[in-house]
Amino acid sequence: MFPYEVILHGIAGSVAAVMSTCLLFPIDQIKTHLQLSEKNNNEEDTSITTTIKKIHKTSGIQGFYRGIIPVIFGNIVSQFVYFFWYNFLKIATGTYQSSMLQYAKCSMLAGLIASICTNPFWVLQTRMLKSKGGVITVAMQMYQEDGLKAFFKGLSTSLILVTNPIINYMIYESYKIWAQSLFIDSKYDALIFFFGGALGKFFATVATYPYQLLRTKAHIAKEQGYLQMIKTIYIQGGIPAFFRGLLPKLSQTVLANAFNIMFYEQIFKLLEKAIIILHENQVYHESAKIIVLAAFLYIAANWKINQEVKPEAKEQKEAVKSF
């Protein structure tokens, strides 16, 4: 049986992910458009400013939130699965306040499970950027083209990207332990969580960005293999081409993870306090239920006795009259 704490961790992770996604999704849209844009000699065609203008001109404000529905669902599932298993493994292996290697093991296993469960959402979100249809329409088109395997395109690259949360949480957990030992007062916790999340994600994103670029292209590629994609990207722009769109990616992921971690930690604290309060109040609730039940049984018993006594009293009264 799973400890109730891991369920709270999963719920906190899901809620935090939705909040941070809605807050920063437009930046992710800009990053994805930059990655998928074709190489052009005119640098302005692929600049951040031009991309923003193009999205707004084509679709208006809604264009910055196109594809957010599968992302939200994907984040709900991925963050619940990840934080559930990450904390379950930490509890099961006694990893709390442990070494970075133990954090890495727990993060790797949780990341593998989350990647397999959520890959279809990320494929769908990327395909929606190149299609005018809605979520159901695009999903049906994908299924008709390649069947179920269409939703798992790029999965191998996603599994490689498990290194991202490994680096992220190794740095974050170590930083959190150090910072909380330095700042004992809990009023600094929110800042500790925010900066820790930003720090961990910065190094994780820079280290794994080329893999993320390959995954994005793999989601929309038809027959092109990974080796061919690597060759094509290198021919187009050399080593810098593998980091194309890194700036908006850092702006999105670092901020998103900072907010996500801060929201997650704070929401978990609130949920944990709520459970404790409910548990304490449950004693009073159960006592109240027993008192109400006892009172009800007492009233019912008295009513039944009165009903039985009334006929006897009536018979006695009739007997007195006849006498």
TrEMBL record:
<feature type="transmembrane region" description="Helical">
    <location>
        <begin position="100"/>
        <end position="124"/>
    </location>
</feature>
<feature type="transmembrane region" description="Helical">
    <location>
        <begin position="150"/>
        <end position="171"/>
    </location>
</feature>
<dbReference type="GO" id="GO:0016020">
    <property type="term" value="C:membrane"/>
</dbReference>
<dbReference type="InterPro" id="IPR018108">
    <property type="entry name" value="MCP_transmembrane"/>
</dbReference>
<keyword id="KW-0813">Transport</keyword>
<keyword id="KW-1133">Transmembrane helix</keyword>
<feature type="transmembrane region" description="Helical">
    <location>
        <begin position="63"/>
        <end position="88"/>
    </location>
</feature>
<dbReference type="GO" id="GO:0055085">
    <property type="term" value="P:transmembrane transport"/>
</dbReference>
<keyword id="KW-0677">Repeat</keyword>
<feature type="repeat" description="Solcar">
    <location>
        <begin position="98"/>
        <end position="178"/>
    </location>
</feature>
<feature type="transmembrane region" description="Helical">
    <location>
        <begin position="191"/>
        <end position="211"/>
    </location>
</feature>
<comment type="similarity">
    <text>Belongs to the mitochondrial carrier (TC 2.A.29) family.</text>
</comment>
<protein>
    <submittedName>
        <fullName>Carrier protein</fullName>
    </submittedName>
</protein>
<dbReference type="InterPro" id="IPR023395">
    <property type="entry name" value="MCP_dom_sf"/>
</dbReference>
<dbReference type="InterPro" id="IPR044712">
    <property type="entry name" value="SLC25A32-like"/>
</dbReference>
<keyword id="KW-0812">Transmembrane</keyword>
<dbReference type="GO" id="GO:0006862">
    <property type="term" value="P:nucleotide transport"/>
</dbReference>
<feature type="repeat" description="Solcar">
    <location>
        <begin position="4"/>
        <end position="92"/>
    </location>
</feature>
<feature type="repeat" description="Solcar">
    <location>
        <begin position="188"/>
        <end position="270"/>
    </location>
</feature>
<dbReference type="Pfam" id="PF00153">
    <property type="entry name" value="Mito_carr"/>
</dbReference>
<keyword id="KW-0472">Membrane</keyword>
<feature type="transmembrane region" description="Helical">
    <location>
        <begin position="6"/>
        <end position="27"/>
    </location>
</feature>
